[in-house]
Amino acid sequence: MSETHSETVAYVRETMLPPEPPPLAETGAIKWLRENLFSGPLNIALTFVGLGIVWLVVSTVGPWLSHSVWNAGSMAECRQIIAQTWGEGATGACFALIKHRWNQFLFGFYPQALYWRPVLAFGLLFLALAPVLFSESTKARRVVLGLSLALTFVFAALLGAPMGALLGMAVLMLLWAALIETRPRWSLLASLAYPFIAVWLLWGGSLWSEAMVLAGFCLGFVVWRLLAARFGLLAFALAVMATAAWWLLLAGPLASVLAGVLPLRLRPVSSDQFGGFVLSITIGVAGIALSLPLGVILALARRSDLPVIKLLAVMFIEFIRGVPLITLLFVASLLLNYFLPPGTNFDIILRVIIMVTLFAAAYMAEVIRGGLAALPKGQYEAADALGLDYWKAQRLIVLPQALKISIPGIVSTFIGMFKDTTLVVFVGLFDPLKAMADTIRASFEWKGAYWEPYIFVGAIFFILCFGMSRYSMYLERRLKRDHH
Amino acid sequence: MKKSVFFGSVTAVALAASGALAAEGDTLKEVKARGVLNCGVNTGLIGFAAPDANGNWSGFDVAFCKAVAAAVLGDATKVKYVPTTGQTRFTALSSGEVDLLARNSTWTFQRDTDLKLDFIGVNYYDGQGFMVRKDLGVSSAKELNGATICIQTGTTTELNLADYFKANNMDYQPVNIDSNAEGEQQYMAGACDAYTTDASGLAATRASFADPENHIILPEIISKEPLGPAVRHGDNNWGDITRWTLYALIAAEEYGVTSANIDELAKSSNNPEVQRLLGTTDELGKMIGLDAEWAKRAIKAGGNYGEIFAATIGEQTPIGLARGLNAQWTQGGLMYAMPFR
């Protein structure tokens, strides 16, 4: 203590009181409870109602879940085990069904020895997407690459992939990952080739037929680039014709010749063996991948100044949005049979993918149109002022901003479409939720199981959809350009 | 991403290029050329058609597909099972996607004529019944006045139910359900007093309950549901082959030919009908474009009609159906094979 205080006025306090803790009602859990749950008569009532509901759910579902049986050969055995352990009259979940038939929920009737092929196709999907989806963050990309590499390899090995396939997989995936890390721009070409690899892995057969289709696209692209400067739009028509001619005349014979020289064949798997999540994800990914570009084109067409194009786009979008998806699926599966010449074998999964894509594209077009409309007029004018032509203006100025605005809507459409793939049950395909579950319930062992398949399939759908939604939020944060 | 996915559309073309087969004309020739019988089955009906954990199909209808494949192709495993739903089954047949539809379909006038199907016979005589909880105290369907009834929509059972209650001057409250599993769940949860569907389905459902003793199936059968395999109109030879394969299975039971004693009987039987059936004498197979031993192979595939019944839906199985109307005509049932002569 210094002497100075002795000279100051007496009523001035010379030391501060130590701070008191806040009153009990204004701190910690009690404060939170009071403010959030019991702040008024209405909220008090609502809190008790909510607690009642929670208790009701827990008290009904809780015992059922806690009595789950994982090891049993049939429903009857499950019930016996539950009765023995928990007493007569107890109910419990019989997840032994999932343990017994998980492979059919995931792979449908895909041949068991070939399970590694869909797994590899799914793993490669992330390799193909990584340079596109995680182009901005090296760390996130590396995590995704590492995870997909390791998981694909482990699962393929667990599912009994042959040694040769495992080796090939490891080499292919490591090379691809190295390409992504060292030459990101070149890896985009590999991503472009991914759909062909995936189709080959899923359906099998000769790689050369897929390669010939791909070669047709390359040919068309080359023709267009060579002639575009001189002929403009005509070059595009020529490129289309060259591609079609290639597919119709040369591709088939050339594929068989090449297959004779170097037979790159996998055991063929027909579409009717697809089922479960292999089917859902195949249709979902193809639909998502195709509907986005189609939706962009439709959205641009609807805002076009050319009346014919605008009218066509409006008619298409309004027609598709006015018709339920199930109707379109029925058209794909039943009505088309009567239009096509008898004996045509137009793959059913392909038909469904086309219909699902058209359906999603119409919604996508409206979502993107919303993004285009949200863009200030100045952006369009700025693009014009820079002397950019229509396509360049769209590609460099307008679409990057419009798509960024539309991300939540786009991802919602994706998620909705992915969940809608379960509707294929109505055209006789084995979706995981209903067709596969009902088929498994039709066996002697598992008749009488009801909730277990729904819970299992619902959980997987949740993981996939939640993943998509989290990614879209990550992307929004990443692409945020306005610094507040 | 836009670019990368655009190319996916091409996968379509590659797939479209694969495979093409004729739908009309000589089904036998096509099946032989293909080496596989395309058989339309249910997407999953307990006892009649269901795949196991390895994707191998089995069941009462599936056994018939196997018998036809054995008769025509000489190998009961050469069947491609095409699962069909209630909506897609007849289109699948008429568009040529399947050669034979063995999918517990009721033989009706309209399906036989207007839909241009040929039902080749009846492999199971079914009928619609009711199941109720025992404590409801009901012992006859006539006492169900005012009851809530779980009923699958879009089926013949729905129409039969309406007809029956109208004819008996009773009221009911329908609870619409979409599938058998959902029906069971609703019934168990007490959403309806009675559950109605084909009697075979009721028996299977009751057997799967934790407490089957607390539920009874009422004695009334309110409709005729003759279930049979069907083929397309217009290919009579194929219709003959499938029809007589069914008769061969039924006749084999009548004459005591089983999968166990068939080889022995083929050599030593003195019964001329058995000799003709098994191709020991006469060459009946030639008349339908097959070889002499077609029926022998068909019977060997899964046994005679009685053996198939016992193995898939009979009293020893969890479904536990009695033969009833499906017994041989000599046992008071309706199974009656035309003479092999």
TrEMBL record, chain A:
One GO BP annotation is: amino acid transport
Q: Which Gene3D superfamilies match?
A: MetI-like
Q: Read off the Pfam families from this record.
A: BPD_transp_1 (PF00528)
Q: How does it sit in the membrane?
A: Multi-pass membrane protein
- Give the ABC transmembrane type-1 domain ranges: 277-472
Q: What residue intervals traverse the membrane?
A: 42-65, 114-134, 146-179, 186-205, 211-227, 234-262, 274-300, 312-336, 348-368, 405-430, 450-471
Q: What PROSITE patterns does its record include?
A: ABC_TM1
Q: Does the keyword Cell membrane apply?
A: yes
The record ties this protein, via InterPro entries, to:
AA_ABC_transptr_permease_3TM, ArtM/GltK/GlnP/TcyL/YhdX-like, MetI-like, MetI-like_sf
Cellular component annotations (GO), alphabetically ordered = ATP-binding cassette (ABC) transporter complex
Q: Where in the cell is it found?
A: Cell inner membrane; Cell membrane
Signal peptide residues on this chain, from the entry's feature table = none
Single annotated GO MF: transmembrane transporter activity
Q: Which UniProt key words apply to this protein?
A: Cell membrane, Membrane, Transmembrane, Transmembrane helix, Transport
Give the protein family.
Answer: Belongs to the binding-protein-dependent transport system permease family. HisMQ subfamily.
Q: What is this protein called?
A: L-glutamine ABC transporter membrane protein /L-glutamate ABC transporter membrane protein /L-aspartate ABC transporter membrane protein /L-asparagine ABC transporter membrane protein
Q: Which organism is it from?
A: Paracoccus versutus (Thiobacillus versutus)
From TrEMBL, chain B:
Give the UniProt keywords, A-Z: Signal, Transport
Q: Which GO terms describe its biological process?
A: amino acid transport
Q: Which SMART domains match?
A: PBPb (SM00062)
Q: Which Pfam families match?
A: SBP_bac_3
Q: Which residues form the signal peptide?
A: 1-22
The answer on whether this UniProt entry bears the keyword RNA-binding reads no
Q: Which stretches make up the Solute-binding protein family 3/N-terminal domain?
A: 36-265
Q: Which Gene3D superfamilies match?
A: Periplasmic binding protein-like II
Xref: InterPro entries: Bact_solute-bind_prot3, Solute-binding_3/MltF_N
Q: Which family does it belong to?
A: Belongs to the bacterial solute-binding protein 3 family.
Query: Per its record, how is this protein called by name?
Result: L-glutamine-binding protein /L-glutamate-binding protein /L-aspartate-binding protein /L-asparagine-binding protein
